[in-house]
Write a structure and sequence with these properties.
The complex is a heterodimer. In chain A, a hairpin with a 4-residue loop joins β14 and β15. By secondary structure, chain A is α/β, with parallel strands linked by helices. In chain A, strands 1, 2, 8, 9, 10, 11, 17 and 18 form an 8-stranded mixed sheet that branches. In chain A, strands 5-6-4-13-14-15-12-16 form an 8-stranded mixed sheet, with helices on both faces. Chain A starts with 5 loop residues before the first helix and ends in a 34-residue tail after the last helix. In chain A, α2 runs parallel beside α7, α2 crosses α10 and α3 packs across α10. By secondary structure, chain B is an alpha+beta fold. Chain B has a 4-stranded antiparallel sheet, with no helix packed on it. A two-stranded antiparallel sheet of chain B has the order 1-2. Classes of the chains: A alpha/beta, B alpha+beta. Chains A and B meet through α8, β12 and β15 of A and β3, α1 and β4 of B.
């Protein structure tokens, strides 16, 4: 694998781009691995990378039923932020953001991380007070870039929002995280895959797990569409389909429901929006940014009922379009290029799981709700730490399945034990 | 687009309905062990395939319904008024 550098780009440029080699191998599965990660999405790939780099694990496989980056890795709206206020969440996502800041160098792959600011619009004095409380909490707990903008400042920075005083929900200000932004989702998958592969990780695509072989409290092997593979340790990182694998392992219920979430991209436009803008008011939910290619990338609420189907429904298309028109009326004549849906693990309190399981050598990474993309580096980092050491580090101590039994819910929205409400 | 045939109103667009959740959950007795309540409130089978679930016809008759639906294909197998147990509980509390 050729390293990317200014010299190599120049050299390949003058020699006809003939010298590049493939970015990662396409190995046949071996009969045994010390660690098998199920799920070749961002979290599985990142976990494999950090298992090798931070913990020196040599024999690792990532099994992916389709192709890497083809599930939720390729279906999100690429927003990275750490504006959380609950203990546990805020430290975790801030750690993730600091990893994002160095990720392109770390992976020798340009993930196009753009810290363009995340601007959450506020529409009432009460909302401004609540946001000030939350963002002050962030400033006091290690996230220094949290700000509240008044209307004048907001109008200067983002001039073409709907500032009409007669709007149903007039804009009164914004809560802003300046180090937040977006990244190129495919590049994150490819960057981690390439870096992990370079360290000897076998990335095995088109390899679906079809059965879990158990011997009492341990997993001995996984049945896959490409044969039986024995494992020392197994990690599940298959958000959206966690319950299906959990079922194969014979483990009963989970505090998770699978729901689908749509996203949209418009035809490419000239530069229009420099930041990530979020609108959440009166039952509406909308977030938008502009990709480097020019497409407006946006999304809204869940499709309101449980589903494993990776296709969206039309009422939500209408709902999101209405929200778009109320925030940025200038988008009215822009054509929609594509829309799609991904299946997400919605958890009972809106927070994820990185934890041990009832089986000795099975570890779980699941329940990411809307937020798995931004969590990628830290999720990989701490899931690798958990698998390598067999115990949760304090950072992820409360991200376990038993927290509900302890009466603890890390419920950022305060919505209660109903998965569909944690959007 | 999904059509849900409400037993009271007839076939309607699913946009008229709100989703409740897993309709197979049996809540334990009030004095049941905490673990039973934990399991009923927090754990889900999260079936990929045919499951029983609750919907409410919020923009119609406002009745709660029990719907048997495939969570992968969205095919609806049956729609009936919500679990009679709910009525029994309400009656017992009254």
């Amino acid at each position: 694998m050729t390293r990317f550098s200014a010299w190599n780009v120049l050299w390949q440029g003058i020699t006809g781009q003939k010298g590049w080699t493939r970015q990662w191998r396409d190995p046949e599965p071996k009969s045994h691995y010390d660690v098998i990660l199920v799920g070749g999405g961002l979290h599985g790939l990142a976990t494999a990378y950090y298992l090798s780099k931070n913990h020196g694990v040599r024999s690792i496989a990532v099994l992916e039923k389709g192709w890497i980056g083809g599930g939720n890795a390729g279906r999100n709206t690429t927003i990275v932020r750490s504006n959380y206020t609950r203990p546990g969440n805020r430290e975790f996502y801030e750690h993730s953001l600091t990893l994002w800041e160095e990720l392109s160098h770390e992976l020798n792959y340009n993930v196009m991380f753009s810290q363009r600011s995340h601007i959450a619009l506020l529409h009432s004095p009460g909302a401004i007070d609540a946001a000030a409380r939350g963002y002050n909490t962030m400033r006091l707990t290690g996230t220094p870039d949290a700000e509240i903008w008044d209307l004048d400042r907001l109008q200067q920075e983002v001039p073409h929002l709907n500032y009409a005083s007669g709007a149903r929900f007039p804009i009164m200000g914004a809560a802003v995280q300046k180090r937040a932004g977006t990244a190129r989702h495919d590049a994150v998958a490819w960057g981690y895959a390439r870096a992990a592969d370079t360290r000897g990780v076998d990335i095995i695509q088109n390899c679906a797990v079809t059965g879990v072989e158990r011997n009492g409290g341990r997993i001995t092997a996984l049945e896959t569409s490409r044969g039986r593979i024995t494992a020392g340790k197994v990690g599940f990182a298959v958000a959206g389909n966690t319950s299906r694998l959990w079922n194969m392992a014979g483990l009963g219920g989970l505090p998770i429901e699978s729901h689908k979430l749509q996203a949209f991209v418009s035809e490419p436009l000239k530069p229009l929006l420099d930041q990530v803008v979020v609108f959440g008011m009166g039952g509406a939910h909308f977030y938008i940014s502009q990709s480097d290619k020019g497409g407006m990338v946006f999304g809204g609420d869940l499709d309101w009922y449980k589903s494993y189907a990776q296709r969206g429904n039309l009422p939500i298309v209408q709902d999101v379009a209405e929200a778009a028109m109320s925030v940025m009326p200038c988008l009215g004549r822009v054509k929609l290029l594509r829309h799609w849906a991904g299946v997400v693990d919605m958890s009972m309190d809106g927070t994820h799981f990185i934890c041990k399981t009832p089986l000795d050598n099975l570890y779980l990474n699941a329940g990411w709700n809307y937020g798995g993309f931004k969590a990628t580096p830290a999720a990989g980092w701490w899931f690798a730490d958990l698998i390598a050491n067999g115990r949760p580090a304090p950072m992820i101590g409360n991200f376990d399945l038993k927290r509900f039994e302890r009466g603890l819910q890390i419920d950022e929205r305060g919505a209660g034990a109903d998965p569909k409400l944690h959007g | 687009m999904i059509w849900i045939t409400c037993p009271f109103c007839g076939p309607r667009d699913h946009a008229e309905f709100s989703y409740g959740g897993d309709g197979s959950i049996q809540y334990p007795a009030l004095d049941a062990p905490v673990q039973d309540w934990h399991d009923a409130v927090f754990l889900r089978a999260n079936i990929c395939g045919v499951q029983t679930e609750t919907w409410q016809h919020v923009h119609g008759c406002r009745m709660w319904l029990k719907v048997v639906r495939d969570t992968m294909t969205h095919e609806i197998h049956s729609v009936t008024p919500a679990h009679p147990g709910l009525a029994a509980v309400l009656e017992a509390e009254a």
